[in-house]
Amino acid sequence: MSFDEVLGHDTIRQCMSRVFGRDRISHAYLLAGPEGIGKSLLAQQLAKTLLCNRSPVGSGAQQRMNPCGECGSCQALASGNHGALQILASVESRGIEVGTLREMMRSLSLRSGDRRVVVIDPAERLAEPAANALLKILEEPPAGVVFLLISHRPAQLLSTIISRCQRVTMGPLTLEPFLEVLATVPIDESSGRWLFGAVGGRPGAAILLQQALERCGGEEALAQIVHSAVRDPRDLVAVAGDAGGQTDREMALATIRVLTDAIWAFRPAVGPGRWQAAEKATLLSHVARHAERSGSVDLCLEATAMVLSATDLEQLRIRLPRSLGVA
Ligand SMILES: [Zn+2]
Predict the structure, then answer these.
(1) Which of 76, 131, 157, 210 could pair with 82 as two cysteines, CB 3.0-4.6 Å apart?
(2) What angle do CA 254, 257, 259 make, to 5 degrees?
(3) β-bridge partners, 87
(4) Is the peptide bond before 141 cis (omega within 30 degrees of 0)?
(5) What per-residue confidence (pLDDT) applies to 323?
(6) CA 45 to ligand 1 centroid distance, Å
(7) Does residue 8 contact residue 177 with C-beta atoms inside 8 Å?
(8) HSE, side-chain direction, 13 A CA sphere, residue 35
(9) Interatomic CA distance for residues 85 and 119, integer angstroms
(10) 77 alpha carbon – ligand 1 mean position (Å)
(11) What pLDDT sits at residue 1?
């Protein structure tokens, strides 16, 4: 896949191409925006372009920057094995730890001379000591290393880290590129239009919701799960399914996120039910945040079931923290 194959985000791609062409590459970028809009994909493509042996980075060229797909670097990246690209992702509830960051910087320092890229996805999952260590690194960035920080919630990052990054703010896609992305899955246009209304221009979220619909047997069946009491909260995980190699926490998180989108997708067009759906989606996003960090997976799924079946939201707001084990 080339840089051009990241669909949507045209202005950002053009702008990054110009910056790369003139070799005005910053040592750190923060790709910020909602989940499911293609931040990780863009970061991968930026990394490939920066590392490609034949890409016109720094040539003064104004054209789109694309990795060639053929050189040794591109091939190593395609096989997922390139020593100059390091991806830091969070492991279970611990987040990204300082030891992992230090070890990665040490291994990169053995490759001085080349350009190297570090992707941190998502940056808000850096544990506090790791965030402080990263800040020190960004204060005196090693030559040739480009950091690509991804964040769904930049407000949770240290402001001192943000101020040392070039910020690239990414928003939801408009309908046309959104449908284009979905067509590659493939998802047909009429389902695509419905999904756009349901999740906004977030193709990543739309694909997960579409898969949940297929898994449950259609809109009515998923709406039923969203609107009725769940006997065993563990059963909810079947909605998002097992993408393979996921931990319990990742599966629970995917479940909570897809159910949040489903609540919103099946909200009534008018009346108090519409307001209630918005409120429930907000409460579920709190549960997701808790599940992301440290919450017990079982408690988070129980809380999710409580939110789905709740009729009295006032009561729920009082009970929810206790059921998450935080009260
Ligand atoms: Zn190449």
Answers:
(1) 76
(2) 105
(3) 119
(4) no
(5) 85
(6) 11
(7) yes
(8) 18
(9) 8
(10) 9
(11) 41
Question: So where are the chain's domains?
Answer: 3-169, 217-323
Whether the CB-CB separation of 310 and 316 falls below 8 Å is answered with yes
| Surrounding residues of ion ligand 1, Cβ less than 5 A | 52, 54, 67-68, 71, 74
Q: In Å, how far from its chain's centre is CA 326?
A: 26
Cis, bond preceding 154 (omega within 30 deg of 0): no
Report the pLDDT value the prediction gives residue 5, as an integer from 0 to 100. Answer: 60
Q: Give which of 146, 305, 176 is closest to 232, Cα–Cα.
A: 305
Q: Superfamily for 3-169?
A: P-loop containing nucleotide triphosphate hydrolases (3.40.50.300)
- Residue 247 is classified by DSSP as -
Neighbours of 65 (CB within 10 A): 27
Q: How many CA atoms lie within 13 A of 166 on its CB side?
A: 14
Residue 103 CB partners (closer than 8 Å, separation 6+): none
Residue 265: count other Cβ atoms within 10 Å of its Cβ.
24
Q: Which two tokens stand for residue 227?
A: 């609107």
- Residue 74 in tokens: 């591109």
pLDDT of residue 135: 97
Write down the residue that tokens 């009429």 correspond to. 190
Ligand 1 center to 210 CA (angstroms): 34
Collect all residues with Cβ–Cβ distance below 8 Å to 65 and sequence separation of at least 6: 3, 16, 17, 20, 21, 49, 55, 56, 57
Nearest to 300 by CA among 231, 236, 206: 236
The DSSP bridge pattern shows strands 166-169 and 116-121 to be unpaired
- Segments of the chain with pLDDT less than 70: 1-6, 62-64, 91-92, 327
